[in-house]
Specification:
Elements (H helix, E strand, L loop, with lengths): L7 H14 L3 E6 L8 H14 L6 E3 L5 E5 L2 E7 L7 H17 L7 E8 L2 H10 L2 H7 L1 E7 L4 E5 L6
Parallel strand pairs: 1-2, 4-5, 5-6
Antiparallel strand pairs: 1-3, 3-4, 6-7
Helix pairs in contact: 1-2
């Protein structure tokens, strides 16, 4: 397991910039809340990074998908998950909650893509491979979006690509 913490806000920022660079318009972002999360600081960090990348700041919402983006009549709903320093069971529970949220965004069949964005980490990779069958990814058009921290690049896997 990787013991390097990667905050969810970093995944949200990098995924947002990647979407924009691929022609998507950011519609809405939802920042994480909870114990130990400084919402004002996260919003400031998001604003600064999007400004640096020339990405228009989207609407802010406190509920729903972490990112909603639009392009050519398509809608993308993405759930982001960071990497804490918890034990494997905690990471699995966090992963299961993120997957459950992502699947719940499947509310229409046409013009919808859903995504699960998280750090590229050996624990998460194992959970993705063991808990998200390829048939499910294809049936609900589920993308897996991984932030490769070492290479500073997003790796996006379409529903029909092996991870």
């Amino acid at each position: 397991m990787n013991n390097n913490s990667i905050p969810e806000i970093d995944i949200l920022i990098e995924t947002s910039i990647w979407l924009f660079s691929n022609g998507w318009t950011l519609d809405t972002v939802s920042l994480a809340r909870g114990q130990g999360i400084d919402g004002k600081e996260h919003k400031k960090k998001l604003y600064i990074r999007l400004l640096e990348s020339k990405v228009e700041f989207p609407n802010h919402n406190s509920n729903g998908p972490d990112i909603i983006a639009k392009k050519d009549g398509l809608i993308w709903k993405i759930e982001c998950k960071g990497l804490g320093e918890g034990v494997s069971q905690t990471l699995r529970n966090n992963f299961d909650r993120a997957l459950s949220s992502t699947v719940s965004y499947y509310d229409q069949r046409n013009n919808l893509q859903i995504g699960l964005a998280m750090p590229r980490d050996s624990t998460y990779l194992g959970l993705i491979r063991s808990r998200i069958p390829q048939a499910l990814r294809e049936a609900i058009n589920l993308w897996v979006i991984l932030w490769n921290v070492e290479k500073k690049v997003i790796e996006a896997y379409s529903p029909n690509q092996n991870i």
